[in-house]
Write a structure and sequence with these properties.
With 647 residues, the chain is α+β, with helices and mostly antiparallel strands. The chain folds into three domains: 18-227, Heat Shock Protein 90 (2-Layer Sandwich); 233-393, 2-Layer Sandwich (Ribosomal Protein S5, domain 2); 413-541 and 606-641, Rossmann fold, CATH 3.40.50.670. Helices cover 35% and strands 22% of the residues. It is built from 19 helices and 28 strands. The strands form seven sheets. An eight-stranded mixed β-sheet has the order 9-8-7-10-3-2-11-12. Strands 20-22-21-23-24-28 form a six-stranded mixed β-sheet, with helices on both faces. The protein is flat and about 75 Å long. The termini are far apart.
Length: 647
């Protein structure tokens, strides 16, 4: 197709020189306020440094000059990023009178992305990438292969330690950056290979034909992945659906362009009930969507309704809603444009209204043609949407029936809820506890001013295998829906949420892990904003109680148990320390539960986050879905880690 996106979509004879580098302002305050530039100084910020350098290489690929990128975790946990692009300019930058290579790494907002003609589209974070990474690195070295020579420059915490100089000859072009994150800046310095590999795989999907390698050279962790997807986002959708049963074998692909803006969409339905929509603008993930997603949704709903009427699948007064049309749909939307307008500093949402029009037009035109040429697929999609519509109506009736039976409309709360006195949701927390005995201890041990307790019993419904109409009548789930007060699914309204800390408190054994997984599946599928906003936590109860005379301490792991035991013996092997394993929360006295698991001053909570929606969707599908083989394979691969799970 003439208007499909290709990697080399721009001319490859454009000279990339120092005149393309424009300086907006100096490097200031990065080390004082690193969170402003990389989000945080936690593990996510550490990995963000790599993404910033890779983004520069990706920009070279978008411009048509780079075909290979390698990201290496070195033996000493430093990072090296290598590409075969044109190489960062090394001639004198006009505004500063300094080498452009120096300017790129020492001046904030210096780069070829501010109208100098270096890049038509760019995913780099406001052009601050290289200088911010430099400022937050204990040391950084860069080598540029350009004009037959190898240019080298070295820095430490943003300051030059070696001026640019020629260190050799070369027969190719490209840039190599090696850096060590600064221990003064970050909470952790250990890179997670899977995190980097997942992000790089995403980049490879988004840039058809671009080869990205990830390599881990650390002792005992050596591994390597080589990724190149000629099918681009078509293969991305197939990857998302790999553990699901597709409704139609072919991934539907649509692409088009208008002036300097381009858009491509790949979609495929499966027989499940959940929608997975992943969108990008200039290769930057937009988890909160934006105009490109709006354009897709509008076009999909209109096209399917028009097609259904035309083919007489829908009656004259019958229509399917947008939610009905997207049930079981996996879709990837990628747009590229010159002046991307992102809402918020983290670029979570695309604000360019012209992308809504472009995506709408492309999907309307191309999807209509596809359905006309593939009537069997069109029929299957409409039948699925109609089933979703009928299930939604059944859910509505079930919801109304439950409301009448439970008196929900009058504000009545479930019997199992022991509410707190505070009414400001931002100050309230609710513990979801399995079992009446554990619930009883939690109720007696809590601070009733701000802590609510909801007791559950038995195994709850696996919502991965159920539609919403089955949920409303479920005797275990519905009390929780009532207690939280925000609804579920398309009715969910986070403004009505009654607690801003939702804490899952389950035993530290296999049954407890299963309960947590069931609850998290429910939250992910039907109350996903709870996880996205960071409102869901897992309590961490102690595993052991250690007693010596009147001294009592607890331990949360086997390692801590050994350390605490040694401390209590005081170096004397003859001293006896009684060690008891807590078999369940119900065994704890109320004061023990308060002191170890519920007291905000002493407890440990794990916040449940959503770093990668695609990975989360896949793991919930594997662990909780209908397909047995993927779950069996996952268990076989991970069985080595399941040591002493059930006590």
């Amino acid at each position: 197709m003439a208007d499909e996106l290709t990697l080399n979509s721009t001319q490859v004879d454009h000279e990339y020189g120092a005149s393309e580098i424009q300086v907006l302002e100096g490097l200031e305050a990065v080390r004082k306020r690193p969170g402003m530039y990389i989000g945080s100084t936690s593990e996510s910020g550490l990995h963000h440094l790599v993404y910033e350098i890779v983004d520069n290489s990706i920009d070279e690929a978008l411009a048509g000059y780079c075909t290979d990128i390698t990201v290496t975790i070195n033996r000493d946990n430093t990072i090296t990023v290598t590409d075969n692009g044109r190489g960062i300019p090394v001639d004198i930058q006009p505004q500063t009178g300094r080498p452009a290579l120096e300017v790129v790494f020492t001046v904030l907002h210096a780069g070829g992305k501010f109208g100098g003609g270096g890049y038509k589209v760019s995913g780099g974070l406001h052009g601050v990438g290289a200088s911010v990474v430099n400022a937050l690195s204990e040391w950084l070295e860069v080598q540029v292969h350009k004009n037959g020579q190898i240019f080298e420059m070295k820095f430490s915490r943003g300051k030059i330690t070696q001026e640019m100089r020629v260190v050799g000859r070369t027969d190719h072009t490209g840039t190599t950056v090696t850096f060590k994150p600064d221990p003064e800046m970050f909470d952790t310095l250990v890179y997670n290979y899977d995190t980097l590999h997942t992000r790089m795989r995403e980049e490879a999907f988004l840039n058809a034909g671009l080869r990205i390698q990830t390599v881990d050279l650390r002792e005992g962790q050596q591994q390597e992945d080589d990724m190149c997807y000629e099918g681009g986002i078509r293969e991305f959708v197939a990857f998302i659906n790999q553990n699901k049963e597709p409704l139609h074998p072919e991934v539907i692909y649509m692409a088009g362009a208008r002036e300097d803006s381009m858009a491509e969409v790949a979609m495929q339905y499966n027989d499940g009930y959940n929608e997975v929509m992943v969108s990008f603008a200039n290769n930057v993930h937009t988890p909160e969507g934006g105009m490109h997603e709006e354009g897709f949704r509008r076009a999909l709903t209109n096209v399917l309704n028009a097609y259904g009427k035309k083919m007489k699948i829908l009656k004259d007064d019958e229509k399917v809603s947008g939610d009905d049309c997207r049930e079981g749909l996996s879709v990837v939307i990628s747009v590229k444009l010159t002046e991307a307008q992102f809402e918020g500093q983290t670029k979570a949402k695309l604000g360019n209204s012209e992308m809504r029009t472009l995506v709408n037009n492309i999907v309307t035109e191309k999807l209509e043609i596809f359905l006309e040429e593939n009537p069997a697929v069109g029929r299957a999609i409409l039948d699925k949407a109609l089933m979703a519509s009928r299930a939604r109506e059944a859910a509505r009736k079930a919801r109304e029936s439950v409301r009448r039976k439970t008196g929900l409309e009058s504000g009545q709360m479930p019997e199992k809820l022991q509410d707190c006195n505070e009414r400001d949701p931002s100050l309230c927390e609710i513990y979801i506890v399995e079992g009446d005995s554990a619930g009883g201890s939690a109720i007696q041990g809590r601070d009733s001013r701000f802590q609510a307790i909801l007791s559950m019993w038995g195994k709850m419904l696996n919502v991965e295998k159920a539609r919403a109409d089955k949920i409303y009548g479920n005797d275990k789930l519905y009390p929780m829906i009532m207690a939280l007060g925000a609804g579920i699914g398309d009715e969910f309204n986070i403004d009505k949420l009654r607690y801003h800390k939702i804490i899952i408190m389950a035993d530290a054994d296999v049954d407890g892990a299963h309960i947590r997984t069931l609850l998290l599946t429910f939250f992910f599928r039907y109350m996903r904003p709870l996880i996205e906003k960071g409102y869901v936590y897992s309590a961490v109860p102690p595993l052991y109680k250690l007693t010596r005379g009147k001294t009592v301490r607890v331990a949360y792991s086997d390692e801590e148990k050994e350390r605490v035991s040694a401390e209590m013996r005081g170096g004397n092997p003859n001293v006896k320390v009684d060690i008891n394993r807590f078999k369940g929360l119900g065994e704890m006295d109320p004061h023990e539960l308060w002191e170890t698991t519920m007291d905000p001053e002493r407890r440990t909570l794990r916040r449940i986050t959503l770093e990668d929606a695609v990975a989360a969707d896949q793991i919930f599908t594997v662990l909780m879905g209908e397909e047995v083989e993927p779950r069996k394979a996952w268990i076989e691969q991970n069985a080595q880690y399941a040591v002493n799970l059930d006590y």
